[in-house]
Amino acid sequence: MFDWFKKSNYNNVVKFPGPVPYIETPAPEVKDPIIYYSIGPTDNNRISLKIGHNSITMNKAGVHALIDLLTVAMNQLTDEDKEE
């Protein structure tokens, strides 16, 4: 009837959680290196040139033709673009 000692009843209160276990922070993710181009021989005596998602496979004559095309294009550059 009377609560002379004014004891509170905390049975319906949610208790504080216990101590939190130590959680190790994850290591930073290592990105895969970006490959801008690759060139090398194939197993059937050809040269493979990969730039981005494109790939071209050439024989020896094709490699010489590509070098000649690049040389012609390089010689058309103005003098101000040349590196010193």
Write the layout of secondary structure elements.
Blueprint: E1 37-41, E2 47-51, E3 54-58, H1 60-75
Antiparallel strand pairs: 1-2, 2-3
Mean of residue pLDDT values:
86
Helix vs. strand class: alpha+beta
Helical content band: 10-25%
Give the ordered list of helices and strands. Answer: EEEH
Catalogue the unreliable spans.
none
Strand content: 15-25%
What is the total tally of β strands?
Answer: 3
What does this structure look like?
With 84 residues, this protein is α+β, with helices and mostly antiparallel strands. The chain has a domain at 37-77. It is 19% helix and 18% strand. The protein has one helix and three strands; from the N terminus they run βββα. The protein has one helix at 60-75, and strands at 37-41, 47-51, 54-58. The model has no long low-confidence stretch (mean pLDDT 86).
